[in-house]
Amino acid sequence: MTEILPALSQLPSPSTQRIALRITAPAERALKQGHPWIFDQSITEQSHKGAPGDLAVIFDDKRRFLGVGLYDPTSPIRVRVLQKIKPATIDNNWFHEKIKTADAIRAPLRKQETDGYRLIHGENDGLPGLVIDRYAETFVLKLYTPAWVPHLKDVCAALQQTQHFDHLILRLSRTLNKQADELHGLTDGMTLTASPDKGQTPEGLVLFKENGLTFECDPINGQKTGFFLDQRENRERVRDMSEGKSVLNVFSYTGGFSLYAADGGATEVVSVDFSTPATQATLRNIQHNQNKPNVKNAKFETLDQDAFEALMQMKAEKRQFDIVILDPPMFAQNQSQVETALAAYRRLTHLGLDVLKRGGILVQASCSSRVSTVEFFDAIHRSARETGRPLEEIERTGHALDHPITYKEGAYLKCLFATAP
After folding, report:
1. What is the pTM assigned to this prediction?
2. Cys-Cys crosslink for 212: which of 3, 12, 113, 250, Cβ 3.0 to 4.6 Å?
3. Cα angle: 23, vertex 178, 147; to 5 degrees
4. Between the CA of residue 89 and those of 37, 84, 86, 122, 219, what are the distances in Å?
5. Rounded CA gap, 19 and 365, in Å?
6. 367 among known catalytic residues
7. What is the pLDDT of residues 9-40, one digit of tens each?
């Protein structure tokens, strides 16, 4: 059994006094349709001021219950809705049921030699502003709002009741990391709970399984929670189409697509990422999978280089590949950056096709929620036509099983698989 460490026991308890709110008619309609946020400008009446983590109860103009959520006076997202239409007590039992329901959705993954996945996908699993990722016996809990701080003890207790783990690591969003006064001693990368016989922190990098392949992650210092779990199903698709192929993986990070391609029988795999630590992790991941005959026999190359520059250099060198994978980081942080992002996607398509063999497969993804699915796919096709190589679509994909989407704005991942003549 894991032990709750002092950092959790010293946190404040949530206030027993509820904040009563009324909201605008458009916000009320959005709430009823499943949107999990109430913005500050949507609030028309408020009973009293509140602190992060206070429970705010939302009523309609006839004082009928609409919902209850976590109040956050530090954010334009003033309330993150936990429960709507039917009242409920928000406590350990309520969190337990939410985690139990989310766990049941992920059950098929555990039958696929996979112990690395997202257990709680924030808003889409009914816990807005909170993410829990599993990496074997190490769990990582990431917060995006201080409103969760007074409820962490209940959340962690509920997690212990449904899951077995050796360590629970806390990660904080960049915004939250700057709100020291609201954190009550919590820090990014600290251990919240630990198994007495395993020590308070994981020893070194954590190894986990994904569809039978072994990957490492750094849950304390790595990007996000240590690994990009959302592309697992697309990586599996690449594995299925890689036999006998040469593969270029651009924005490779720690080599997820690269390892899947090799395991699928790719003869040559080139990984490009600007981050030297990322490409070094790719090399270690290759070593972690030397028990796989196809991985052992594949020819690997890693390049620590800007993606755009690498693609231009490969074109100049007349290098060509059977499969080109373009999986860049988020290009649009807000609406004002959408046009710039679309231009970047079009340029990437152009450069990717320059190094793709005739009849080869282009795999291009976007994780920018601000860029719509229609805009993204249109940008790729437009660029392909301009190069004289109109694409023939194989498949369009979205979110994996452990990244469910329950409201429109929650969708961010889209990926195109297509052949180019």
Report:
1. 0.94
2. 113
3. 35
4. 19, 12, 10, 19, 33
5. 42
6. yes
7. 889 999 999 999 999 999 999 999 999 999 99
